[in-house]
Amino acid sequence: MSVEISLETLVEGIKSGDKRLIAKAITLVESKKLEHREKAEQLLKAIMPLTGKSIRVGITGVPGAGKSTFIESFGQLAIKNGKKVAVLAIDPSSAINKGSILGDKTRMEDLAKDPNAFIRPSPSSGFLGGVANATFETMLICEAAGYDYILIETVGVGQSEVLVADISDVFLFLKIIGGGDELQGIKRGIMEMVDVIFINKVSDENLQQAKNTKLELTRALQFMPPKEKDWKVPVLLGSALNHQGLENVYEKIDDFISLKKSSGRFEEVRQLQGEKRFQYWVQAYILEQTKKNQQLDEAFNEHKKNASELLSNPSSEAREFVNKLLKS
Predict the structure, then answer these.
(1) How distant, in Å, are the alpha carbons of 91, 92, 98, 107, 119 from that of 104?
(2) Three-state SS at 159
C-alpha cells in the first residue's frame, strides 16, 4: 500500500475517475492496518456526499451459471446505454492460506478494456459467505467516482447471497437448465430474496426445456411471500454469451427500481442497509478494542474456549463476556 499518497490526492482522483487512484483508495479501505483504517475512514467521510446515486445489482448463481459472462455482456449493454459500470467480483479465498484466484479480469477481458468500466476482484479472505469485508466501502468509492451501475457478484455459496442482498438495490438470480427436477437444489431462502430471475445458456436445442423451467419457477414463486408490494418476480430467458435477452433484464431492473422509488421503499431499504453496516462495524470495533486490553483478551479467549468445547452454552458464554466488557 502506497501510504505516501495524500488523502486529498485520493479524493480528487476518485472525483476525476482516475482508475489508478480509485484502485489505491480501495486497497486502503481493504487494509486491516490501524493507520490505514483511520485514513480510510477520513477518505470515506470526504466522499460520502458523492455517493448513493448508483444502482446496486447483486448477482448470484451456482458455479457454471455463467455469472462472469453475464456480467460482461450486461455491463457492455449498460455502457451502450450511456452508463458507467463498476464490477465488484468477490473471489472465493482459500480457508488455509487466504489466497484468491482473482480471475475475473481475465474472464471479462473485453469489459475490462472499456474506459467506462472498472473491475475490482477482491479476495473474500475467509469473510462469512465470501463477501469481502470492505465490499460496502468499495461500493461507495465506485459511486463517488461516478459509476452508474455497481454489479456485485457472489461466489454463490452459503450465506453470500444474504450478505450481497443486504447491500443491493436489486438481486438477480442466474439459473441454468439442469437434468431432473429443475427446482432441486434451489434454496427457498434464495427464492425469497430474488427480484429478477434470468435463465441463462438458452439455445434453440433446449428452448422447450427452458420454457418448462420458467413455468416451474413461476409456479414456485407463487408460494413465496412477495418481497416488494406490486412486484411480480419476472423469469426471463436468454443467453449472455450470445447477448440474447439482456435487454429484458435491463428493462426489468429499471422497472423494479422505479417501483421502489415511487413507493418510498428505495430509500427505506438503503437506510436499513446502512444500519446493518453500522452494527457490523460496532461488533468489529468492540472486538478490536477487546484485543488491546490484556485482561479482556484473556477473558474473551477463555469464554470462546468454553463455547468451542461446549463446556457451556455459547450464548451464555457470550453474555458473560459482554457483561465483563461493559463493567471494565
Answers:
(1) 8, 11, 17, 5, 8
(2) coil
Distance CA 139, CA 272 (A): 16
How many whole angstroms from its chain centre is CA 172? Answer: 11
pLDDT at 91: 55
Element (H, E) at 102: none
322 phi and psi angles, rounded to 5 deg:
-60, -40
Position of cell 442482498? 165
- The SS3 of residue 112 is helix
161: left (phi over 0), alpha (psi -120 to 50) or beta: alpha
Helix, strand or coil for residue 171?
Answer: strand
Burial class (CB in 10 A: 0-12, 13-18, 19+), 313: exposed
CB 156 within 8 A of CB 45: no
What is the CB neighbour count within 10 angstroms for residue 98? Answer: 12
- Residue 79 has a CB neighbour count (10 Å cut-off) of 18
Rounded Cα gap, residues 65 and 154, in angstroms = 12
Round to whole Å and give the CA distance between 306 and 300. Answer: 10
Locate the DSSP E strands across the chain: 55-60, 85-91, 117-123, 149-153, 170-175, 196-199, 235-237
The three cell numbers locating residue 158:
452459503
Please check the confidence at residue 286 and state whether its pLDDT lies above 80: yes
Query: Position of cell 468499495?
Result: 138
pTM, rounded to two decimals: 0.86
154, 161 Cβ separation under 8 angstroms: yes
> Which tens digits make up the pLDDT trace of 74-110?
999 999 999 999 999 765 543 333 434 444 555 788 9
d(CA 92, CA 94): 7
Q: What is the pLDDT of residues 16-56, one digit of tens each?
A: 999 999 999 999 998 878 788 889 999 999 999 999 999 99
- Any idea which of 3-7, 111-115, 249-253, 301-305 has the lowest mean pLDDT? 3-7
3 state DSSP class of 128: helix
Among the listed residues 234, 174, 172, 244, the one whose alpha carbon sits nearest the alpha carbon of residue 202: 244
